[in-house]
Amino acid sequence: MRQPIKSRTFIHEEVIPPKQGFAMIVRKGQNFRIIDLMGKQVADVVFFNAYNIKEKNCNGISMARQIRQGEPYKQTDKLTTGDIIFSSAYRPMATIVADTPVPGGIHKLVGHMCNRGLYEAFGYPDHDGCWEILSRVLARYDISPEDIPDSFDVFMNKEHDVAAGQWRIKEPVSRPGDYIEFRMEMDCIVAFSNCPMDVIAPTNNWVCTPLKVEIHEEMNEE
Questions:
Q1: Which of 3, 19, 61, 134 has its Cβ near the most Cβ atoms within 10 Å?
Q2: Which domain holds residue 62?
Q3: First and final CA of the chain: distance in angstroms?
Q4: How many distinct structural domains can be found in the chain?
Q5: pLDDT over 60 at 1, yes or no
Q6: Residue 5, domain member (yes or no)
Q7: How much is the pLDDT for 4?
């Protein structure tokens, strides 16, 4: 039987410069893609229910709700293709449909995003963090800084050193052109900070580079 051909209709395309942010309502059924144009660049991503901003992404619930029929219950320490971003109300917000870096699943789920307080502690008093960048782009949706959840940090490479009792930040594994793509399961305000970390740790391989956003719809053609 002949398989239907999928056509793609682009809703929005935009390049996000280093240390800048993005926010937009993405509708249920649309696909949201973040492309790492030059490689090794992190995006701190958050999701809000477009009609109830109290409902937002929750990494802890997402780690505990990747349940597969017939498999024993487990809690995962990584999310990749086929996994779901769950909300604070235990509802699916977005499904990861593509994750092209090798290996996949290298995204941070544990820990808070960078912010001015962190940079000030290390002697960088005028350095905004992801929290400040997200606060600016989300203000037009009446989302206050205090309401921003811990982000899903796309492409961030963070490993747990059990013996030392520490989380260690390493260079991302994403290559130029690698991307992660989400299929939206509800209408969401989707926002991210193009991570500004170019000091303290190799979060972005010590240099910040642009990211590209693509939002599209896929339709079957006979």
A1: 134
A2: 10-217
A3: 11
A4: 1
A5: no
A6: no
A7: 62
